[in-house]
Amino acid sequence: MIQKNLKKCFRISATGILIVSLASMNSPYSIKAKEKPAQNDYFIENAGFESTPKENGAILGWTQTYGDTGFSIDRSVVKEGTQSLKMADSLSTKSAGIRSSMARVTGGQVYHFDASIYLQSGSLNMYLLYFDENGKEVAKFSSGYSVKSVAANTWLSGSVSGKAPKNAVSARLELYSGVASVTNAFVDQVSFSWEEQLDLTVSDPVNLGEAVKASLTSSAAISTRSDGHSELYFATNGVPATFYAIDGDTGERLFSQPIPGADTVWAITEGSDGNIYFAGTNDGILYRYLPAEKRIETLGKNPSDTWIWDLAVSKDGKVYGATYPHAKVFEYDIQTGEFKDLGTFKDGQKYARGLGISGDYLYVGIGSTAYVYRLNLKTGEKEEVHIPISGGNNTVANIEGYDGKLFIRVGGSTVYVLDEETLELVNTIKYTGEISPPSPDNGEDMYYILGAKLHRYNLKTNTTEEVSGISSTDHTTRKFGWVEKDGHSVLALVSGFSEYMQYDPMKNEVEYIYPDVEPQGVPIQSLAKAPDGKIYLGGYHRGMSVFDPRESKIIHNLSWMPQPEGIGFFDGKVFFGTYGGAKIYQYDPAKAMDFGNTPDKNPGLIHDIEDFQDRPFTLESSGNDLFIGTIPGYGELGGSLSIYHKQTGQWEDHRNVVENQSIIGLAYKDGYVYGGTSVWGGGGSNPADENAKIFVWDVKNSKKVAEFTPDIPGLDADPKMIGELSAGPDGLIWGAIDGTIFAMDPKTYEVKKSKVVYPSTYAASKWRPIYLRWGKDGLLYTTLGRNITVVNPGTLSTMLIKQNADLMDIENDGSLYYASGADLMKLEVHPGETSFNSVREEAEEYRSRNMLDQPLYKQLLEDLKQADHQLEKGNGPNAIEFLEKAKEQINKDSLSKFISLDAKNVLTASLDSLIRQPK
């Protein structure tokens, strides 16, 4: 029955708008008292760029907001008409931006700008900006287009959308090229419009707090003490950071202390006196930890800068620090306790990033333009060390010198090996983090991590090889060292997750030791609801937790779980697809939690997909089988379809089911698995294909029976990612392509319905699938375009719930859970509550803003009154007649000058909602 009283709560009308008081009569963007509303509120002046520029070259209706050049009217590349807007941002040191004229809006509504874009180079951002009645910007929404992710030299459909805040009264489009981008593009046919929303009520979100906790560190030191035992030293990131001393044999905590004023410690090293020196990134203070006394000393603030990136020590009792933002280096004398500023090592640069000492030389890595300098510590002479990227846009992050060779890491993983005497390049290798010192046993073997694998470099032969026979590791190396164990040397490694690993080269075995440290909240990386209603969450870098909605709290937190990319449920168990190395862990909720890297643990490692695979993002199951799709490792193309058969306990791994493409979506139906792909492979790789595919896998016969790119009418860009996929209750296979939803016949593969809800920018993750979850209300809840969006599967009408959210699921009671950074959020979605009172309020609001003329306003109120009266008498058909009459009146062409387009759209949708309600 139609509700006659407006509930006093956060309410979204039939159009999805929040009804509030928005603007006074004196608003600079309101129509003056005797002025008639414009026929089209969504008018953008010179939207097609056909007007002649002003004498000074300024573009009519548009205002340059960033830079002073770069925009002009052009006739060479045009979508429609004879002219377009040309963006020629040739400077990588300045940004360029231009804004449209203003369009009027109503708070709580969803609007979008559309434009035709022809991108030749660089990247172009579209910003939807909302302003209040005082002209103050109150919200900004963006979409980005880059030649790295969309086709160049062709016309594309660009779009940006967003919900107007309750105090917004106007909107503008901004076209923008960032500081670092060199952009050449053309824009034409700009338009602004309103988007009707589903009739749903959404509660205020509730923050349930940090969901996954782990221990992250940015640097470490490994020391063998005088009695022969080893100790680890690092600070975990947090506010404040906490310094730890850990027993290297047992993981026992020997000492810990918060460091006020520091949230991250990148710089830590062992001094020539056996004490540990470290510094943070906020206050410039150098600290010393004394292992024998288990206490920390504050040595004072260095004279160079506040942000300390790295520390290095010399044999003569000096500690050197690399700083930001003036690329300076300081010296601390351990014996005298005095500091010295050694000055800026490269004028015009900000980063002195990596430090290394070899013999009489201090080596300094510079950024963000890459240079290497060395300082003779005896003579004070400084000279540049040339590397292949000298003068290029990068930063030198690590410098280490061993046995006459220099290892200089630039950026993420490129390492130049130089002969220290001649300074000539002798090799180029890749690793993440750092390289180990040479083995004390042979003086030749050094180790590093690349692509989740341990590798060996031989100093004598200048060659590298992968260490085979041990399991993959996703460790981001913070420190390598050598310690004694069982009478010989073993390689020790502290990871960026505060974990400790020992590799025995003689036995070719790895042992993991877990230090006793306090975890802190990390960003949520994955989220999935189990059949019993519990919410399983994975952490970025590390960690897993379980949230029980009935108790409204985290009931388990596991800090050591490798980064879960995907979470699935099968046969009463929980399966985690983890990064790196694509390892699968199984957890039995009926048993006690006891994490480990063997199948007998809980969660325990049950399968390593191998074959250069890295990230298992999608998991699906049938009654008998578990299906997993993966992204390959660094530099690789070609994901894997892995299948676990419950009856036999066996695994099948099928790489390159679709050649050179990753698998990011899986759906099972009637003996077949439907898979969706991404053209992107592992980090550092380039796509081999233009279009993503769908494949169909015959489970019984273990073979692919179809592969194709679906034909989707009106798709705004080539499909680069297809996934997730879901078998819908209507018998169709539903899928997502960035901001597009579609449904396909599982037998003919014909697309039966589709809608471009948001533009296909592919600006976010190239691997994470779009979530598709079916609610008990029959609606489809998605993360289309990385926005939580509800879709009516029958009409494909939508409602935007939350922008910039790409992890969500629906609990058994209908509550919606999503991730916001490290926090788990909850909100409730219910059917809408459109009522006679709510429509009257809408009309009153538009009348107060002079967007609805008085006679038409009075007629609308009279029709609503009569419809309400007929309903009270039990005469539903007569009530509908009055509602239809009201709708007809506000949509008459002859009366369009008495009502704004915004008011017409909103009131029409609200009246339609009343008409549809049971009478």
Largest sheet report: 6 strands, antiparallel
**What is the CATH architecture assignment of the domain at 556-769?**
7 Propeller
Mean pLDDT: 90
User: Radius of gyration over alpha carbons?
Assistant: 31 Å
- Specify the number of helices: 4
Number of strands: 70
Polypeptide structure, described:
The protein is mainly beta. Among the domains are: 63-196, Sandwich (Jelly Rolls); 328-430, YVTN repeat-like/Quinoprotein amine dehydrogenase (Methylamine Dehydrogenase, Chain H, 7 Propeller), CATH 2.130.10; 556-769, YVTN repeat-like/Quinoprotein amine dehydrogenase (Methylamine Dehydrogenase, Chain H, 7 Propeller), CATH 2.130.10.10; 836-916, no CATH class. The strands form 18 sheets. Strands 1, 4, 5, 7, 8 and 10 form a 6-stranded antiparallel beta sheet that branches. 48% of the residues are buried. Residues 837-916 form the FIMAH domain.
Provide tags for this entry.
4 helices, Outer membrane protein assembly factor BamB, six-stranded antiparallel β-sheet, Jelly Rolls, FIMAH_dom, 7% helix, Methylamine Dehydrogenase, Chain H, mainly beta, 70 strands
Please describe the topology of this protein.
Blueprint lengths: L62 E4 L4 E4 L9 E6 L6 E4 L3 E2 L5 E12 L1 E9 L5 E10 L8 E9 L6 E8 L5 E13 L4 E3 L3 E5 L2 E2 L2 E8 L5 E7 L4 E7 L5 E7 L7 E4 L5 E4 L5 E6 L4 E7 L5 E7 L4 E7 L3 E6 L5 E6 L6 E8 L2 E7 L3 E6 L5 E4 L10 E7 L2 E6 L3 E6 L5 E6 L14 E6 L2 E6 L4 E4 L10 E9 L2 E8 L4 E5 L4 E5 L6 E2 L2 E6 L5 E5 L2 E7 L4 E10 L1 E7 L2 E6 L4 E5 L16 E5 L4 E9 L3 E8 L7 E6 L4 E6 L6 E8 L2 E7 L15 E5 L4 E6 L16 E3 L5 E5 L2 E5 L6 E6 L15 E3 L5 E3 L5 E4 L6 E5 L5 E3 L5 E5 L2 E5 L1 E3 L4 H13 L5 H19 L3 H15 L10 H16 L3
Antiparallel strand pairs: 1-4, 2-3, 3-11, 4-10, 5-10, 6-9, 6-11, 7-8, 7-10, 12-70, 13-69, 14-42, 15-16, 16-17, 17-18, 19-20, 20-21, 21-22, 23-24, 24-25, 25-26, 27-28, 28-29, 29-30, 31-32, 32-33, 33-34, 35-36, 36-37, 38-39, 39-40, 40-41, 43-44, 44-45, 45-46, 47-48, 48-49, 49-50, 51-52, 52-53, ...
Helix pairs in contact: 1-2, 1-4, 2-3, 3-4
